[in-house]
Amino acid sequence: MQSPLAFVTGACGLIGSEVCLYFSREGFRIAGLDNNQRAIFFGPEGDTSWTLEMLRESIPGYQHHAVDIRDRSAVLALVSQLKPGAIIHAAAQPSHDRAAAIPFDDFDTNAVGTLNLLEAARRAAPESPFIHMSTNKVYGDLPNSIRLKELDTRWDYDDSDFKNGIPESFSIDHSKHSLFGASKVAADVMVQEYGRYFGMPTCCLRGGCLTGPKHSGVELHGFLSYLIKCNVEGRNFKIYGYKGKQVRDNIHSEDVAALMMAFCKQPKAGEVYNLGGGKANSCSIWEAFQLVEAVTGKKQLYTYVEQNRSGDHICYYSDLRKIQTDFPGWRITRPLPNVIEEIASSWSRRASAKVALRDVVQ
Ligand SMILES: NC(=O)c1ccc[n+]([C@@H]2O[C@H](COP(=O)([O-])OP(=O)(O)OC[C@H]3O[C@@H](n4cnc5c(N)ncnc54)[C@H](O)[C@@H]3O)[C@@H](O)[C@H]2O)c1
C-alpha cells in the first residue's frame, strides 16, 4: 500500500518547510504548494528559493507545485488530483505591518486562499485532517487591556487569570487587529466552520512567535530570526516603542510540526489551540539581545523608535494547557537559548555561503 500524502501549502516558508521534512520523516509522501510570493511581499531578502532546493534534496520524491493559493480553479484541480491524506495550510501573507500597504493581496491570500483550500478539501478529501496556521493576532490588541506590571527588562501580566498566558477562550472581538489580523480572523472562523458545519477534522493553531533556523526573517516579519540576523551581520535593529520590554513567546518550528502530527493522529473537528513557546520560552527584546549576545559574542546594535507599531502586543504568551490536555505526549523540546543558537548558526552559514558564491562569481 502507498504511504499517505501530506499536502503542505506555503511549503517553502518557515513552517511549511519544517512540516514537509517532519512529515516525510514520519513516512508521508509530500506535495508542496508555494509560488515564492514571500519574495514579492518582502523583496529579495524574503526569497525562499533556497528552501525549495533544500526540500528537493532532502525529501525523496518531493513534488512541488508553484501554484498561487488565490487561483481557485488551480487549487480545486490540484487537491482533487492529489486527494491528500493530510492538509497543512501554512501559505499566507504573514505580516501585520505589510498588510496595510497591500490590503487586496493580504485578504485574497489569507482569507480567500484559505476558503479555496477548505472547499477543495471538502470536495476531494473531507475525511483528511486539515490544519490551518492561524495567529495570535486574531485576538487583536485586546491582550493590551490586561493589567500589566513593568519589571526591569520586561512587561508581564498583573492579573492572576493570565498567569499561564492567553487561553483560547479570550475574545477575538472589539479590538484593533490590523488588516492582517482581520484577514486571519476570517480564515480562522472559516476553518472552524468547516469543522463545525461540515464535520471536517479541522483545526486552527493560533501561533505566537514561530521561529527556527529555516526562517528568512525580515524587518516586517520574523522578529527573533531578524533580530539575530542583525546581530550576526552587525546591522542595526529598530525597537518600536514599549521601552523594548514587549514580550513574545517563541517556539521552534519543529515543535509546531510535531503538534500537527499529533493532531493528524488524533483529529477533532473545528478545534482551536494557542501555540507558542509559552511563558518558559518568552522574552522581551532586551532579554533577546542578552541571549543573542551570549551566543554570538557580538554586541547588538539598535536604535529606539518611540512610536510602537500600531496594534502591537505589549505582552503576549500562550497558555499551552489545552494542548497539553488534548495531546499529553507533546511538549516544547527546545528551550529558548537552544532556539537562538540554532538560528544564529544558520545565519552564519547562510552568510558564509553568500560570500563563497560571490567569490565564485567574481
Ligand atoms: N512566523 C511566525 O512568527 C508566525 C506567527 C503566527 C502565525 N504564523 C502563521 O503561520 C503561517 C506560516 O508562517 P511562516 O512564518 O512560515 O511564513 P512564511 O512567509 O515563511 O511562509 C509562507 C509561505 O507562503 C508562501 N505564499 C504566500 N502567499 C502565497 C500565495 N498566494 N500562493 C502560494 N504561496 C504563497 C510564501 O512564498 C511563503 O513561502 C502563516 O499563516 C502565518 O500567518 C506565523
Care to describe what's here?
By secondary structure, the protein is of the alpha/beta class. Helix content is 41%, strand content 17%. It has helices at residues 14-25, 37-42, 49-58, 72-82, 103-124, 178-196, 223-233, 253-265, 285-296, 321-326, 336-361; strands spanning 5-9, 29-33, 63-65, 86-89, 130-135, 148-150, 155-157, 202-207, 209-211, 236-240, 247-252, 271-275, 282-284, 301-305. The strands form four sheets. It has a seven-stranded parallel sheet with strand order 3-2-1-4-5-8-12, sandwiched between helices. Strands 9-11-13 form a three-stranded mixed sheet. The chain has a two-stranded antiparallel sheet with strand order 6-7. Strand 4 (86-89), helix 5 and strand 5 (130-135) form a beta-alpha-beta unit. It is globular and about 55 Å long. The termini are far apart. It binds nicotinamide-adenine-dinucleotide (NAD). Residues 10, 12-16, 33-38, 48, 68-70, 90-94, 109, 113, 133, 135, 207, 209-210, 222 line the site of nicotinamide-adenine-dinucleotide (NAD).
What characterizes the major β-sheet? 7 strands, parallel
Number of strands: 14
Mean pLDDT: 95
User: What is the percent of helical residues?
Assistant: 40-55%
Structural class: alpha/beta
Distance, first to last CA: 51 Å
